Predict the structure.
Amino acid sequence: MEEQKANVRAVERALEILLCFTDSTDLGLSEIATRLSLHKSTVHRLLATLENKGFLIRDVQTEKYRLGFRVWELSANLTHNDDPATVLLPEMERLRDLVEETISLYIRDGMERIRIQAVQSRQPIRRVAPVGARMPLTVGASSKVLVAYAGEHVLHELLHEQEWPDYVDRESYLEQLEQIRELGFATSVEERELGTAAVAAPIFNRNGQLVAAIAASGPSNRLTLEKMGEYAPYILEAAYRMGKMMK
């Protein structure tokens, strides 16, 4: 029984190592050990196994690791027919060209949102949105959209989160959600990052179920509340078209 638990824990740690690469392309042994709060010797053994199996590649000069070809082989076998990140990309590019700002696609995962696709703005000064980034549901236009149209159980769990930020007033947050449901879209100005703003709308599939949130984001001095109001109809129209593409 103890051996079985040890094997399961080793698998969990190996997966945790791979997940470290969701926001980094190259990581060293010490960086990974620090992130996971594990001994270097433990991490070294797991890295060697992942390298031998082709899931990681080690640069002999820098001694840093990056994802290996096995990861790409697995991803090539994903079913893309119903994958929003693939299906909706052309519409995201169209919306980017229309509003000239970065377009991001988010889904909810527990009490976080994940950016699963992004189309970067062509503006010289723009918001760069890395795919795979996780963010809290308490701040940001897309977060509020994903909560506003989720079930009551999601809102209840979120409001009782231990990590609820002190600077976000719950009553004001609830009022914003109500306003979002009335308008059909959400805005945010420097809620999560200084100097950035965003406007987002929900994407419902053909069965009326919430699938994702689509957002346009950029520098707050360019993407003003007035400008976001002008862009909102374009984003709502794009969200409607995207929803018709989803089962």
Notes: The chain has two domains: 2-75, 84-244.
